[in-house]
Amino acid sequence: MSRVCWNSLRIQKSKDLFFREYLGPLSAEAPLFHFFLDPHTNRFSDEYIRLSLGRNNVIWTLLSLMVLEYTDKNKGTQAVLRSLMLTLTMYISREYAREYVQPSSETPPAVQMSAFIETHSDSVTLRSLASHFGYHPNYVSACLHRETGKTFSEILLEKRMEKAALLLANTDLSVEKIAAMLGYSNNSNFYKAFRQYYGTSPREYPAAGSE
């Protein structure tokens, strides 16, 4: 098995552009999302993600194609590289999930449900959560409250606000763009939820957090 590493520090200079293009596949894995946005707080102390890949893994092919495209620099190279990078990011996310976050059969249902909410915080509903785990919505609601002390809506809000804070503090994405990424179709709802959760508006948050 060969190993490939991603270094979060190499993303810092163009973080806002990177997340405009590739936030979707990255946000599906919460630890990976935190790795790029706030690398000093994750469990990878040397700020690398290491993946063990077989010789025939498609990631090696994608990397080779990107190197060839970059060195040849033909018309449309940037568009091709963006597409390849998006594909690479999705495969990296899949490999990361396979190696690091495979759920254990011994993991309590409420913990698995909370992880699912975090992964799908832009679109999850109580009904879709229940359907995914094969339970009735009433059971899921009661299970979450019993095991976490929080309702489904409270957990969802918490996961969304944590992502919102990271994006606001670490990228130049607009508030409107962040709201859409987090699943808010109405910007005013995002502003209201953020202010109630943090006691300040999204536009003031980075400055307020640095004081």
Describe this structure in words.
The chain is mainly alpha-helical and 211 residues long. The chain folds into two domains: 2-100, no CATH class; 107-211, Homeodomain-like (Arc Repressor Mutant, subunit A, Orthogonal Bundle), CATH 1.10.10. The protein contains eleven helices and two strands. Strands 1-2 form a two-stranded antiparallel ribbon. The longest helix has 24 residues, at 77-100. It is globular. The termini are far apart. Residues 6-13 and 41-46 have low confidence and may be disordered.
Spell out the key features of this protein.
211 residues; globular; Arc Repressor Mutant, subunit A; mainly alpha; two-stranded antiparallel ribbon; 2 domains; 6% strand
Please count the beta strands (DSSP E, at least 2 residues each). 2
* Helix-and-strand structural type: mainly alpha
The end-to-end distance, rounded to whole angstroms, is 47 Å
The CATH topology of the largest domain is Arc Repressor Mutant, subunit A
User: What CATH architecture of the largest domain would you give?
Assistant: Orthogonal Bundle
What is the arithmetic mean of pLDDT? Answer: 78
Radius of gyration: 19 Å
